[in-house]
């Protein structure tokens, strides 16, 4: 029995199809769980934005829309690359899988690079909350609160990105050593689900942090 | 030939592979259940030790044993350990892990390695929390209210929060495993309405845990960030609202208390039909009420915040929903009672615990309704009435259900019978000790004794002394099963595959079961679960 | 493996649509529409999220159970945010301090 076949139908399952369906249920439940985790932060953000709309707009105006929109485009493209990797996995084309996984990882790394550049900029401009914050406008406190949310939520997102790149690296390794085949490539599909989900979170983060202040 | 048969009988999940490593690296859900049992028993007695210290302190109206600062740490650690390291994992990770694959006719859970990982994660979380304890403890209360926890407390809040955060992942991993198993690994013919109620309740329980635990996780992270960075989301200096913490915390914690009682209900739903020799009355009602409890439990969290400053209108909404969530629980109580009516009831130890559960849970539930009434809550909030209410549910409910379940499935798990006479006496001691401990607390609360106070007015002393006396008796009642069950593991009388003559796929395996539960995947053809009528003849032959 | 395979074309069109919506929502944000700004921005984000979920994550093509799980996650998040906002939006309606 080939290694792939063993992986495709572990002992506790009756058929490979049952295994794949069960694993799919498990993966989506995990994503539902992640929705609730980020959801709590979105809830807190919404409560405060509803109470301090002007201050949050002003805080948002200080965001770098160029970097933000470039990052959004980058992430969306990385998701496309990953979809190509999934497509290649179904065809069993190891070279292409590896190529697209590498491209996804590179784009993810560029995203993180731009993100940390932005963070650095915020520190320079005295927008980082805590001892680094310096603002004398009447809305100073609420603006600082905006940045508290910005750093926590995008920071949590960045942590997920880093973990995601790690997961993709693991998938790349398994592709190279040959355990990802047309017969069994579920890990690539699920790694993809994770990456796409992190992309979705970013879409909402972009909407709530970068866009509100543009009209000012 | 007899030799071969004897050898074949003896090969089971316990003796299949020997050695410590075979236990620490096992992926067999039954062994993992036993690993968890060790853990939660340890945590139970640790949390119980803190309770004992508190009750001793409360013997006198003044601080005689510990200072108020230490008392704050005692009730915090008692609550933290009991909630996260005993109550939430107890029934699901021990009985649930052991029984769910067997009840659905599977060889193991959907993700056995994830199961093992969840135990290690749990132990890591427990280790970090014990570290916080040993370094000096936490004094914020298990509820970690801000701004005390974020700005003013000088104790090991972050360490405790990290420990709980890690343990939360263990819960999520287990719940995910259960949901996937119940959905996709049922034996052929085992449709949803042929499943034991245990599975329905554990399923609903797991759904709650998957949805609420991440909210706790991120809320604890926010508390930690605020403590470390000295600025954060709940910081009033930035316009933050400490009550927002309470919203997020109770969004998790209210469904969490239902995750402590639903597994208890799951166990009771198995014991009552078995010892009444009757099918579960109103099976579908009980099954759906499990799901209803899970759904409604998410709509009531504000009832912990009636006097915290939330708006009156949302308080009314939460009060209304709190009344609603009592309905499915009541439906279960009525159906269990109806199951016993005109049944052939036997008073073995599991049934004694089950009946105790039904009575005590009902009292706890009714007092919960009293607390849900806005006007009453203004008087009763943060008094001993609340403490009595939730201990009736968690101790009179969950712990008794846990003990009942352990006794009921003990023959299956260990292959031995426990000593019935001693077990019944223990159950009686637990019942008497429990009521003596906690009933006076209702009176105390009504009279105005606040919770979390080490010193109190003299007129409350009599009731406190009664309560402490009860706690001592209760403690004896808990130590006894620990002793005789361990004794029975080695020296108990051997058990047959189905000593209670109960229905359910788990009783169709030998006691103890083989490593893979079923040699051949069973095919279920019985049209109804708990079919005691149809199985009368078959069972009498066993 | 028999899960439905999306054509490469669908992926590329989804990606182009997503980039387009990003552009649209960014441009709209330059206009001050009061409270509707937030509604439109979140709304477009939600549409983009559905496209990622539906096309790139194949959610549209999954079993009913998976769709139920997705729905449950969204609904529970909405419960959390609605009741919490319900508190904050209805404070101060009565002439008593703290209510």
Describe this protein's structure:
Chain A has 216 residues and is mainly α. In chain A, 80% of the residues lie in helices and 0% in strands. The longest helix of chain A has 38 residues. The model of chain A has no long low-confidence stretch (mean pLDDT 91). Chain B has 542 residues and is mostly helical. Helix content of chain B is 69%, strand content 0%. Chain B has 17 helices and no strands. In chain B, helix 4 packs parallel to helix 7, helix 7 runs antiparallel to helix 8 and helix 11 runs antiparallel to helix 12. With 99 residues, chain C is mainly α. Chain C contains three helices and no strands. In chain C, helix 1 packs antiparallel against helix 2. At the A-C interface, helix 2, helix 4 and helix 7 of A face helix 1, helix 2 and helix 3 of C.
Quick overview:
Helix content of chain A is 80%, strand content 0%. Chain A is mostly helical and 216 residues long.
- Strand proportion of chain A, as a percent range, falls in under 5%
Task: List the secondary-structure elements of chain A in sequence, H or E.
Answer: HHHHHHH
Q: Helical proportion of chain B?
A: 55-70%
The strand count of chain B comes to 0
Most residues in contact, chain pair and counts: A-C, 56 and 48 residues
Main beta sheet strand tally, sense and closure of chain B: none
Characterize the overall form of chain B: globular
**H/E order of the elements of chain B?**
HHHHHHHHHHHHHHHHH
Would you count the extended β strands of chain A for me?
0
Low-confidence stretches of chain B: none
**Fraction of helical residues of chain A:** over 70%
What oligomeric assembly is this protein in?
heterotrimer
CA-based gyration radius of chain A: 21 Å
Largest sheet of chain A: none
Query: Number of DSSP helices of chain B?
Result: 17
- Count of DSSP H/I helices of chain A: 7
Q: Gyration radius of chain B, to the nearest Å?
A: 23 Å
Question: Per the principal axes of the C-alpha atoms, what is the gross shape of chain A?
Answer: elongated
Which structural class best describes the helix and strand composition of chain B?
Answer: mainly alpha
Structural class of chain A: mainly alpha
Distance linking N and C termini of chain A: 65 Å
């Amino acid at each position: 029995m080939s290694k792939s076949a063993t992986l495709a139908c572990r002992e506790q399952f009756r058929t490979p199809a049952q295994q794949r369906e069960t694993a799919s249920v498990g993966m989506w439940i995990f994503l539902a769980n992640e929705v609730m985790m980020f959801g709590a932060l979105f809830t807190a953000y919404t409560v405060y934005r509803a109470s301090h709309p002007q201050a949050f707009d002003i805080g948002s105006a200080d965001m770098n829309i160029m970097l933000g929109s470039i990052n959004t485009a980058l992430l969306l493209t990385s998701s496309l690359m990953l979809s190509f990797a999934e497509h290649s996995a179904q065809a069993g084309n190891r070279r292409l899988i590896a190529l697209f996984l590498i491209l996804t990882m590179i784009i993810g790394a560029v995203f993180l690079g731009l993100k940390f550049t932005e963070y650095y900029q915020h520190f320079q401009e005295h927008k980082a909350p805590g001892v680094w914050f310096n603002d004398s406008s009447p809305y100073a406190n609420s603006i600082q609160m905006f940045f508290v949310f910005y750093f926590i939520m995008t920071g949590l997102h960045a942590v997920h990105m880093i973990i995601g790149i790690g997961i993709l690296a693991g998938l790349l390794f398994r592709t190279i050593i040959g355990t990802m085949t047309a017969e069994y490539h579920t890990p690539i599909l699920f790694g993809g689900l994770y990456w796409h989900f992190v992309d979705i979170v970013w879409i909402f983060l972009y909407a709530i942090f970068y866009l509100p202040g543009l009209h000012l | 030939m007899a030799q071969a048969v004897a050898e074949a009988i003896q090969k089971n999940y316990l003796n299949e592979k020997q050695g410590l490593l075979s236990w620490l690296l096992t992926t067999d859900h039954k062994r993992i259940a036993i690993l968890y049992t060790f853990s939660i028993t340890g945590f139970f007695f640790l949390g119980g030790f803190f309770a004992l210290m508190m009750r001793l302190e409360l013997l006198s109206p003044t601080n005689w044993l510990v200072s108020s600062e230490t008392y704050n740490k005692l009730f915090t650690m008692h609550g933290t350990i009991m909630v996260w390291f005993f109550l939430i994992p107890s029934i699901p990770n021990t009985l649930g892990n052991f029984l769910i694959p067997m009840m659905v006719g599977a060889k193991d859970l959907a993700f056995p390695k994830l199961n093992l990982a969840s135990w290690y994660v749990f132990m890591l979380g427990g280790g970090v929390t014990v570290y916080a304890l040993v370094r000096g403890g936490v004094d914020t209360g298990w509820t970690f209210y801000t701004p005390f926890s974020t700005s003013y407390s000088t104790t090991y809040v972050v360490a405790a929060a990290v420990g709980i955060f890690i343990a939360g992942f263990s819960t999520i991993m287990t719940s995910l495993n259960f949901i996937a198993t119940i959905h996709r690994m049922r034996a052929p013919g085992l449709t949803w309405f042929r499943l034991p109620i245990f599975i329905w309740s554990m399923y609903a329980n797991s759904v709650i845990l998957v949805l609420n635990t991440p909210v706790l996780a991120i809320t604890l992270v926010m508390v930690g960030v605020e403590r470390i960075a000295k600025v954060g989301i709940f910081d009033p200096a930035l316009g933050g609202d400490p009550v927002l913490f309470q919203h997020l915390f109770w969004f998790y914690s209210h469904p969490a208390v239902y995750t402590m009682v639903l597994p208890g209900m799951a166990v009771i739903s198995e014991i009552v039909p078995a010892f009444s020799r009757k099918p579960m009355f109103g099976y579908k009602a009980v099954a759906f009420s499990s799901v209803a409890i899970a759904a409604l439990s998410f709509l009531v969290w504000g009832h912990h915040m009636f006097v915290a400053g939330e708006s009156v209108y949302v308080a009314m909404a939460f009060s209304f929903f709190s009344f609603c969530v009592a309905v499915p629980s009541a439906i279960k109580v009525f159906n269990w009672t109806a199951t016993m009516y005109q049944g052939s009831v036997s008073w073995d130890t599991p049934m004694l615990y089950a009946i105790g559960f039904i009575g005590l849970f009902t009292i706890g539930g009714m007092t919960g309704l009293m607390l849900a009434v806005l006007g009453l809550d203004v008087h009763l909030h943060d008094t001993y009435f609340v403490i009595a209410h939730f201990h009736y549910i968690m101790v009179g409910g969950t712990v008794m259900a846990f003990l009942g379940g352990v006794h009921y499935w003990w023959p299956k798990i260990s292959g031995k019978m426990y000593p019935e006479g001693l077990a019944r006496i223990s159950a009686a001691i637990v019942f008497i000790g429990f009521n003596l401990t906690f009933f006076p607390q209702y009176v105390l609360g009504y009279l105005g004794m606040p919770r979390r106070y080490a010193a109190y007015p003299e007129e409350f002393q009599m009731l406190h002394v009664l309560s402490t006396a009860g706690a001592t008796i209760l403690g004896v009642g808990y130590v006894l099963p620990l002793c005789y069950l361990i004794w029975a593991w080695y020296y108990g009388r051997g058990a047959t595959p189905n000593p209670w003559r109960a229905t359910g796929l788990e009783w169709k395996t030998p006691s103890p079961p083989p490593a893979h539960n079923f040699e051949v995947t069973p095919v279920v053809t019985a049209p109804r679960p708990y079919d005691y009528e149809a199985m009368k003849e078959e069972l009498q032959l066993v | 493996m028999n899960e439905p395979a999306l054509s490469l074309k669908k992926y590329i069109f989804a990606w182009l649509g997503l980039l387009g919506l990003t552009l649209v929502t960014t441009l709209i944000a330059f206009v001050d529409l009061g409270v509707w700004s937030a509604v439109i921005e979140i709304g477009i984000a939600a549409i983009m999220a559905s496209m990622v979920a539906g096309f790139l994550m194949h959610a549209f093509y999954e079993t009913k159970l998976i769709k139920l799980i997705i729905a449950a996650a969204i609904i529970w998040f909405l419960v959390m945010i609605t009741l919490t906002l319900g508190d904050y939006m209805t404070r101060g309606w009565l002439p008593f301090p703290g209510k």
